[in-house]
Amino acid sequence: MSSWLLRGLTMTIVHVIARVLLGIAVVEAPLHTTAWKTIAIAAVVLVALIWGGIDGIADARAHEDPDDYSDLTVRWLQAGLLAGLLSGIVGWLLGNFVFAGIGQANLFVEVVAGGSFTALLIFFPAFVGVAVGRWLTRRQQRKADAADDDDWSVHPERDETGHVVSS
Q: Which of 8, 14, 46, 68 has the greatest number of CB atoms lying within 10 Å of its CB?
């Protein structure tokens, strides 16, 4: 299974579960709709952010040179588009035939508008997570390299014995 397909299907499941739980929460406590929506969006964003960060860390550890990094941008864009399309279709099916509380927009609106929003909701945090993961790994590697370069015998202001040479 392709890595973007795995991510897309998993994020579809996360989004659909968040949407179903949001629908149930809104029906049960309609006065707290804003809080429930915020929690549902935050859950999807958090999963994408953490998974993207894990991808970034793994990619930076696998490739010594940043020019050799894998193209995680396209991987997460494909995953976001797949999740947007599938969650739009599943949301429309659930809204029309199973749960009345999760919305009842027509299929075109669910797939185009909802799918676009979902794709961005997944892609952008994952992209940020990848960047932060790579940055943290590179920072850690630079610190390790700096500790290795702390050999005073190779510094120009010291002689072979390690004593400071006066100028």
A: 8
Rounded to whole angstroms, the Cα distance separating 59 from 129 reads 12
Residue 166 banded pLDDT, cuts 50, 70, 90 = low
The two three-digit tokens of residue 95, written as one number: 């809204």
pLDDT of residue 156: 60
DSSP helix/strand/coil, 112: helix
9 three-class SS: helix
Which are the contacts of 133, defined by CB distance < 8 A and separation ≥ 6?
Answer: 52, 53, 54, 55, 56, 57, 58, 59, 60
Q: How far apart are CA 26 and CA 118, in angstroms?
A: 20
Q: What is the pLDDT of residues 111-122, one digit of tens each?
A: 999 999 999 999
**pLDDT bracket for residue 167 (50, 70, 90):** low
| Upper half-sphere CA count for residue 148 (Cβ side, 13 Å) | 6
Among 79, 89, 81, CA closest to 16: 89
Q: What's the rounded mean pLDDT across residues 73-99?
A: 93
Task: Show the tokens assigned to 35.
Answer: 């809080």
